[in-house]
Amino acid sequence: MTMNAPKRTIVSVDAMGGDLGPAAVVAGLALSADKNPNIGFILHGNKPELEKLVARTKGLAEVCDIRHADEVVTMDAKPSFVMRNGQNTSMWSTIDAVRNGEADVAVSCGNTGALMLLSMVRLRKLPGVNRPAIACLWPSRNPEGFNVMLDVGADIRADDTDLLQYAMMGASYARNGLGLERPRVGLLNVGTEEHKGRPELKSANELIAEAADRANIDYVGFVEGGDIPSDRVDVIVTDGFTGNVALKTAEGTASLVSGLLRDAFNATLLSKLSALLSLTSLRRLSKRVDPRRNNGGVFLGLNGTVVKSHGSADATGMSAAVKLAFRLAESGFTQKLAARVASAGTPSQDQKTQKPEGKQPE
Questions:
Q1: Which pairing describes strands 184-188 and 146-150: parallel, antiparallel, or unpaired?
Q2: How many of the other CB atoms lie within 10 Å of CB of 90?
Q3: Alpha-carbon distance 123 to 100, whole Å?
Q4: Non-local CB neighbours of 256 within 8 Å, separated by 6+ positions
Q5: Are strands 305-308 and 297-300 parallel, antiparallel or unpaired?
Q6: Mean pLDDT for the stretch of residues 63-75
Q7: In the list 32, 127, 149, 210, which could disulfide-bond 236, CB 3.0-4.6 Å?
Q8: Which of 42-46, 87-91, 129-133 comes out lowest in average pLDDT?
Q9: Alpha-carbon distance 305 to 123, whole Å?
Q10: Helix or strand or coil: residue 29?
Q11: How far apart, in whole angstroms, are the C-alpha atoms of residue 110 and residue 135?
Q12: From CA 18, how far away is CA 131, in angstroms rounded?
């Protein structure tokens, strides 16, 4: 008797929104398909162009359903304009595939503001969520190699109840994205003392502390900027303005350090020799902090999972975003997140449960 093939997890992909064009997107899908036989794609964009790109990789056409879209959301497009006039864009089609139940998760490299607004309007917010958030994975000294930080740009404002919801959503993401059973959550502030910070931070500090035991999280209290990449915490909660500034500052600093290190190793013949002797270690470090390998911000608080890839993502970065999307879809993340935000007083909505062998941890 022949066993039925396992059902594929379908990822809806906007092929047209990235800086490097659809070739980089399709190359990333090819990398993902080669590593994962249980994945399938709905690819949105210029169909004739995409068919040529997909045909270059053996077997990719068998796992790709190409949907034609006449228009593209540009990086400088205003979200409100896209919302009024973007029905024929690849981004709109990508989100609607999740809305219609044809795909399990969406991935796009496109305009962040337009993607968030489209996702909010087409997928709708989860009941009880006031402001959705964007969560990113931040390289850290933790055993998993990353911390979760949110919000990093969905909304510049956040009151105390918003920050409480971010804590619950961030903890759920850490459980399903990093496999942490009881995440440690910290609230970003200008100091760790309880008397410091704005009124909404002090109030959120009390709300999260009160909900911690019921939500099965370890609340470590206030944390500072230096704790973001540390092993003191797993989830860092903040408003979108602060989170986005921190993220862009870290990316700029990493680029500066990389350039200065390159200049230092090229300065003299001896330094070039030292670089050659350190090549293995340097490659290991480069791989460890390579933003392409932890590419993907996740929109939290919606009736569907959307992963926002860097606009400049190459094939490696796109493959990383798809891998993250696949893992969250496999874990049933959207359903668990909905249960989590429905009530901060329910402790076991998204904790680990017995699953068949080979499934992703909850």
A1: unpaired
A2: 27
A3: 9
A4: none
A5: antiparallel
A6: 94
A7: 149
A8: 129-133
A9: 9
A10: helix
A11: 17
A12: 26
DSSP state of 290: -
pLDDT tens, 326-344? 988 888 887 777 766 655 5
Read off φ and ψ for residue 359, nearest 5 degrees: -80, 160
CA gap 308, 106 in Å, rounded: 8
Pairwise CA distance, residues 238 & 270, whole Å:
45
The encoded tokens of residue 89 equal 């864009």
pLDDT in tens, 228-249: 999 999 999 999 999 989 888 8
At residue 1, the pLDDT reads 37
CB 17 within 8 A of CB 73: yes
Quote the tokens at residue 60.
């990719």
CB-CB contact of 109 with 130 (8 Å): no
Mean pLDDT of 217-227: 94
What pLDDT, on the 0 to 100 scale, is given for residue 282? 67
Instruction: Kindly report, residue by residue over 32-50, the tens digit of the pLDDT.
Output: 999 999 999 999 999 999 9
Mean pLDDT of 80-86: 93
> What is the C-alpha separation between 41 and 32, in angstroms, rounded?
10
- Integer-rounded Cα Rg, in Å, for the chain is 21
Q: Are 301 and 131 in contact (CB under 8 A)?
A: yes
List Cβ neighbours of 56 (8 Å cut-off, separation of 6 or more): none
Length of the chain (residues): 362
**From CA 96, how far away is CA 271, in angstroms rounded?**
54
Q: Are 32 and 313 in contact (CB under 8 A)?
A: no
Between residues 282 and 266, the one the model is more confident about:
266
Query: For residue 137, with 0-12 CB atoms within 10 Å meaning exposed, 13-18 middle and 19 or more buried, which class applies?
Result: buried
Q: Which residue type is seen at 253? A: T
